[in-house]
């Protein structure tokens, strides 16, 4: 099974969309294995968004992600990284398809309500940044017999 890191950003928390994000990922078939509400320090924000350090939007991005609580999560499942990104939709809400979280609930790229790792290596790195191993406690869902064909 693969794991991915997902976070409801401060705008998603502030707008009461935590349940919506969790519900959609849960109903899709992913398994929730870690969850916490927290404030992101500037240092953690910088490490999390390391790849964007030289981008013009980096300062605003760090200010935004540290501006209020987030809900950090780890989700597990076959191809979890790509599955979660599809449920989230395109980075820019103007381009995100309806039926996706960003397509249905967001207006601006800088306030796009969720984060999701963009590949397996990023997922591993981000899970390590936000969770200790003993905070991850997943177990199979009984209905996985039906979520996966098993062949
Ligand atoms: N972002 C932004 N302006 C941009 C591009 C990105 O404010 O021009 C923000 C946006 O909130 C995005 C985050 O920076 O979610 C990280 O960018 P990335 O390209 O990694 O998008 P994501 O992986 O979140 O879809
Ligand atoms: Mg990204």
Layout of strands and helices, then pairs:
Blueprint: E1 2-8, H1 10-14, H2 18-28, E2 31-38, H3 42-48, H4 58-65, E3 70-77, H5 80-88, H6 101-105, E4 114-116, H7 120-130, H8 144-147
Antiparallel strand pairs: 1-3, 1-4, 2-3
Radius of gyration equals 15 Å
Number of strands: 4
Return the CATH class: Alpha Beta
Residue share in helix = 25-40%
Shape estimate: globular
Instruction: Name every ligand kind in the structure.
Output: uridine-5'-diphosphate, magnesium ion
Strand order of the largest sheet: 2-3-1-4
CATH superfamily: Nucleoside diphosphate kinase-like domain
Given helix and strand content, the structural type is: alpha+beta
Low-pLDDT windows of residues: none
CATH fold-level name: Alpha-Beta Plaits
Largest sheet: 4 strands, antiparallel
Mind telling me which CATH architecture this is? 2-Layer Sandwich
What share of residues are in beta strands?
15-25%
Number of domains: 1
Number of helices, where a helix is a run of at least 4 consecutive DSSP H or I residues: 8
The run of helices and strands is EHHEHHEHHEHH
Distance between the termini: 14 Å
Rounded average pLDDT: 97
């Amino acid at each position: 099974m693969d794991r991915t890191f997902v976070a409801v950003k401060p705008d998603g928390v502030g707008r009461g969309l935590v349940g919506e994000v969790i519900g959609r990922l849960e109903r899709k078939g992913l398994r929730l294995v870690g969850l916490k509400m927290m404030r992101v320090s500037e240092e953690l924000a910088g490490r999390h968004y390391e790849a964007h350090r030289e981008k013009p939007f980096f300062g605003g991005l760090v200010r935004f992600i540290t501006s209020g609580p987030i809900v950090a999560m780890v989700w597990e499942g076959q191809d979890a990284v790509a599955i979660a990104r599809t449920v989230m939709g395109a980075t820019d809400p103007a381009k995100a398809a309806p039926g996706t979280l960003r397509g249905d609930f967001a207006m601006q790229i800088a306030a796009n309500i969720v984060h999701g790792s963009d590949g397996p290596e990023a997922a591993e790195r981000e899970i390590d940044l936000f969770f200790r191993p003993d905070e991850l406690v997943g177990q199979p869902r009984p209905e996985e017999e039906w979520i996966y064909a098993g062949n």
